[in-house]
Amino acid sequence: MKAHDGMYIDGAWRPAAGRDRIEVVNPADEQVIAEVPAGTAEDVDAAVRAARAALPGWAAVPAPERAALIEALRDVLVARKGEIVATVTAELGSPLGFSEAVHVGAPIAVASSYASLAASYAFEERLGNSTVLLEPIGVVAAITPWNYPLHQIVAKVAPALAAGCTLVLKPAEDTPLTAQLFAEAVHEAGIPAGVFNLVTGTGPVAGQALAAHEGVDLVSFTGSTAVGRQIGATAGAAVKRVALELGGKSANVILPGADLAKAVAAGVGHVMNNSGQSCNALTRMLVHRDEYEEAVSLAAAAAAKYASGDPTDPGTRLGPVVNAKQRDRVRGYIDKGIKEGARLVAGGPEAPHAQGYFVAPTVFADVTPDMTIAQEEIFGPVLSILRYEDEEDALRIANGTVYGLGGAVWAADEETAAAFARRMDTGQVDINGGRFNVLAPFGGYKQSGVGRELGPHGLAEYLQTKSLQF
Ligand code: NAD
Known about the structure:
The protein is an alpha/beta fold.
């Protein structure tokens, strides 16, 4: 695969300060497909300086012109869609159809939404005898994970650009090639030099140097709760703004009267898509005791249809997980589920293929709320089905984790489902299969994070207010 042996800083690809490299591995066949430079504090410093220098100019560009450049960026992503799809599949292992529709389709829609928002957003308002100005926060450190390699980047870069901020991006170690293609797209779109900068590298070296850099005004991080906590502490000590999109353990609540077959099929699909590597995956299915065994059989049958294998094969619905460490972690959770007494009804810890980091689509029944697999984020194709007695019991179970990112409720009618959803401690709830909306705020309650991404709420994260009194 094509890779740049350098960092994109101040509008050009520049040699890295150090000699270390990161190998990029295709998780479907375990072959090294490319190498990228592992950035150091020196590279990070050069990138932050470039972003700082570009800030006054970019912040002064009128919003409609910034909007036009975001639109141009969207157009380049559309034009290079095929290349990006192939790259996401090669470094993440996502089946081609999912890479096209979701991994590349969603960020194109997000970029479009920010082109419109930048053009229409009220960056000034009158309040009594004041004019309130919504100004860019400044230089943004964007630190992203590998699970949605392009979406996580666009969900930070597009609103930051719309707000008038400049950025330094440090993408995940496993998926730097998609990030390099994105940097090419920024360049091709004509976004001025220094506005967007890319430093590839490891979390503990490049990520930490970026999060702690005094030239950064906001750290926007998506990833694990453990690292988020550390970044929050560093940012807090420096009195720096921070946005954290962290883990989840979302509940899919099926109330009596719902279309059980539809709810179970959608729920299984939500967990198996992207090999379960979605922070808002509906990994806990809650079913009333009267419908429980029927739901378990439906879920086991649905999971068995997720044929795993080569992600470039059109028949494949389940690719590998991203790396060996994740595979071992997910299998460890499956072993733990069995040990703690859950009933395995599909899949299991055995490797489904001789090569590649595959995990079989797995379903557990008789999961109780105190089990590890009902509490901790697994980040793999593993569904837990829990039994509830009545609505109050369902609510207690749904709200009974440290997380609160996503969720779903199914009922006979939308009103019943929405009434239940209002009582859930979580940032997003899909009602009777409600679709993803690029304008809806996305982010967590409790330990799932701080702040929101997407739509106007996501844009507000990159703004600070100044009031003028007359
Ligand atoms: P991770 O926290 O290890 O890494 C995320 C990013 O942080 C990577 O770019 C990594 O290099 C960097 N990083 C690691 N250590 C760092 C440090 N000390 N300082 C600065 N940066 C550092 O997470 P991951 O394994 O890449 O992703 C999986 C996790 O992310 C899961 O827990 C998942 O739920 C979570 N996630 C959350 C969301 C969300 O929107 N809430 C989205 C995707 C993933």
